[in-house]
Structure formats: C-alpha cells, structure tokens
Design a protein that fits this description.
Elements (H helix, E strand, L loop, with lengths): L32 E7 L6 H13 L5 E7 L6 H11 L3 E6 L5 H11 L4 E4 L11 H11 L3 E8 L5 H17 L8 E8 H8 L8 H8 L3 E7 L12 H15 L2 H29 L8 H33 L6 E4 H15 L1
Parallel strand pairs: 1-2, 1-4, 2-3, 5-7
Antiparallel strand pairs: 3-8, 4-6, 5-6
Helix pairs in contact: 9-10
C-alpha cells in the first residue's frame, strides 16, 4: 500500500466565472475538499454551524462540498438540511435509515466524499471550522496525508470530561502506540490516499482516532482551543464513552487477552502458596475447621475465571461479527444520487 500523498487537484477559482454569473460551474471540475459532518438531533446547532462553516469554506477559493450525514435524527435536522441545501448548492445531504452511531455515520460520509482531501468535523462547533483552511494549506504545503486537529485547551469541558478523556488517551498511547496523538478526536483532514486506505480496512467497529494513526502516513498537527457546545446536548453520554473505550482497546490491542493470561498465572501461584500454607498448618497440627478461607478462595478463582471468559467472549464476538460482514449502516437518501437520477427521469418522461 503506497504511503505517498495523493496529488492535490488544481484549485478552483470562482473569478473564472465572475463575468458570467449565470453560467453553472462545470461538473467535470474536480472537488478539492470534502467536509464530512456526522450529525444526530442537531436542529438547534445547524444554523450556527452553517453560519460559520460556509464563510470559512467560501473564502478558500477551491471547489468544495459539504457532506452532511444525518444519522437517523428524530428532530427537524433532516428538514433543516433540505432547507439549507436550496440556498447552499455545495451542501450534500446523506440520510441513514436508522441511528447507526457516530463512527458509522462518519464512515458513510467518508465513503460518499469525492474530494482530493476530506475533512471531518462534528456539528456542535466545539471544533472550529475556521481551522479547516489551515489544515488544507499545511497538507498541501508539506505533502501530508493526515492533519490532526489537536485540542491545546479543554478548559470549556467539565472536569469529569477532561479527566476521562485524559485517561483514555493515556491508556491508548500505551496500548496502541505513541503514534496516537494526545487530545486528537475526529477533527482531522485526510488526503485521498489516506481515505482510500481507511475505506479498504475491513473493521466492523471503526474507531478512527486510532485507525488513522495506525496507517503511519505522513502527518501534521493544527492546535486549537476547544469551545463550548453551541447548542443542544452531548451525544456522547457515559455509556457511549465506555463503549468507545471498549471498542478502542479490543480492536487495537491484545492486551486484555494477555491480562487474562497473567490473571490466570497469578491465581495459580496464589493457590500454590495457599496449598503450601495449608500443608504447613496441617503438619503442625493447628488445622482449624472453617469455611471462610475456602469461601474467599472460591470467590477469587471464580471471579478470575469469569473475567477471562468475558474477555475471550469479547474477542470471539468481534470475530463473529467480522465473519458475518453485515453493513454498519444503510443509506436511505443521498441528494447527490437523487440529483444525478433526475435528468434520466425527465428524459424518460419526455
């Protein structure tokens, strides 16, 4: 697999058509930048997102598209996206048939994006869209395939969020490797070569903040201050954070299996010590009948065995899921595909 960055396309200059505003932009021009925005129940944040994202992208003087992936929202997110699309032709709406999860929605966006570079950002504006031009400039100037958005300041997060995030990245860097950037989430920019490599991965439970560094492609960083959520509620409660942690550890490390092995070894030697102590007491004639020590030993060994069986079950479950090869999402609507099919429908009607 080549690690050479893909050849960036020529920038699209709007001034070429400024004298003829009525002329449409030629469809054969390549898209330089795609911005993927997974969202779920973000009707309150959408106006602010569009208000900041569109000016930042319009000022770049390159041909771009915004791939908004509606992850089965139950509010007016889909309706608002359709309204914004009528005024923003670069906006492409992809709706999933059901709520498939943040990483699955991000996968759908990466598979739909057509740009030479693809940036991903959440809809809550905690990651500033104004940093996307800086990411693209850095990637093109230094020939990078990956540019991470790294949070230099998380003071706007709660203390619980900061501590759990710090513990997560500390653990991942020790289990997966130092190539995992500390405090880098899903705000990043990928070249077309990196996107194609990610799409070729057969993982069923994608964790892109670990999968992308694993590629080992040339990378750089852009730092920023994490902002408060612009509106709505967080879509990552404690249960999803724990699920992300489990997916991260199991998908990218065999450490839990080794932990199960060491627990078994430790319990075995612990039992040998207890057998030795019991024999010594027996030989001294100080044996006292009782059930407390026996009960504790049984609980200890039973707990170790259940932990080991549970860890093995997690890995076997992942193997079972991978063998099934079931899709992690289903696309219900794609405005790009609908627009492409419209001329054929009109010709059939004629």
């Amino acid at each position: 697999m080549s690690t050479e960055p893909s050849e960036p396309s020529e920038p699209f200059e709007p001034s070429e058509f400024s004298e003829h505003p009525e002329l449409p932009v030629p469809s054969e021009l390549p898209t330089t930048l795609s911005v993927v925005v997974p969202m779920y129940n973000e009707e309150d944040a959408l106006p602010a997102l569009v208000g900041r994202l569109r000016p930042a992208l319009d000022a770049m003087a390159v041909r771009y598209e915004v791939v908004a992936v509606d992850d089965g929202s139950k509010d007016r997110t889909a309706e608002l996206l359709t309204e914004f699309q009528t005024k923003w032709p670069e906006l492409r709406v992809v709706r999933l048939r059901g709520n498939s999860g943040h990483q699955a929605a991000l996968t759908a966006g990466l598979h739909s994006a057509s740009g030479a570079y693809v940036a991903s950002i959440d809809a809550d504006l905690q990651d500033p869209p104004e940093k996307i031009p800086e990411m693209l400039d850095l990637a093109r100037a230094d020939g990078l395939d990956i540019v991470y958005g790294v949070r230099a300041d998380r003071s706007t997060d709660t203390g619980f969020k900061r501590h759990t995030a710090g513990a997560y990245y500390w653990l991942m860097r020790r289990l997966v490797g130092k190539q995992v950037p500390a405090q880098a989430g899903d705000f990043r920019l990928l070249s077309r070569a990196a996107v194609d490599a990610v799409k070729a991965m057969p993982d069923q439970h994608q964790v892109y903040r670990l999968l992308v560094p694993w590629l080992g492609f040339p990378s750089g960083q852009v730092t920023y201050q994490r902002e408060e959520r612009v509106a709505g509620e967080t879509k990552y409660p404690l249960s999803k954070m724990l699920r992300l942690g489990v997916d991260s550890v199991i998908n990218f490390s065999a450490a839990p299996l080794r932990l199960a092995t060491w627990l078994g070894v430790a319990s075995f030697f612990g039992c040998l010590l207890m057998v030795g102590a019991t024999l010594a007491i027996y030989l001294k004639g100080e044996t006292v009948p009782g059930w407390t020590s026996l009960f504790i030993v049984m609980l200890f060994l039973g707990g170790v065995q259940l932990i080991c069986v549970g860890l093995l079950g997690e890995y076997i479950g992942r193997i079972y899921t991978a063998v099934q090869r079931r899709p992690t999402f289903f696309v219900g609507y794609d405005s790009h595909a609908a627009a492409a099919a419209a001329p054929d429908t009109e010709r059939q009607a004629d």
